[in-house]
Amino acid sequence: MAQWTLWSLGLQELHKPAPPAILDQIKHAEKKHFPRKEVFDFDSELRKQNVELIVVIDTAESNCGPILAAYAVYARTSKVALLHKICVAEKYRRQGLATRLLVEQHRRLQLRGCNRVQLWVDEQRLPAKQLYENIGFVEVGRVEDYYGPNRKAMHMMLYLPYES
User: Fold this and answer.
1) If you ran DSSP here, which 8-state letter would residue 157 be given?
2) Residue 147 main-chain phi, psi, to 5 deg
3) Is the pLDDT at 99 greater than 90, yes or no?
């Protein structure tokens, strides 16, 4: 079963189970923000042991319960993590939340022995590409037609500093 990590907007870990409504909010955001072919199958993927879902919630926003601010999905082997997905809800964009989430998660991965994080991004998604470059990802390759005809994927890598 996948590991769930629940964070507050300040990126402090909340040691309590994620409310069931949060997964519904994630699935809704996924369908809204990603092309149909790229929608993540949370029901099957979250059954895998090497998958981690990081969820940032806004607990102060609503009387209806916590509101999804952002989420990221990682798959991990022994030393390498794959950033499979990141999404920030529209209301929380352009506030540095994605950067803070990624930097904090990469610090935690490093403490658990991970030495690099990889991802693939559509070269036409300039804000995503810029986010990754700003936190230290470098391009290591390209794949033609990865996302469809004439849609190249950039393979990017972040090398985490080694700490003994």
Assistant:
1) E
2) -100, 5
3) yes
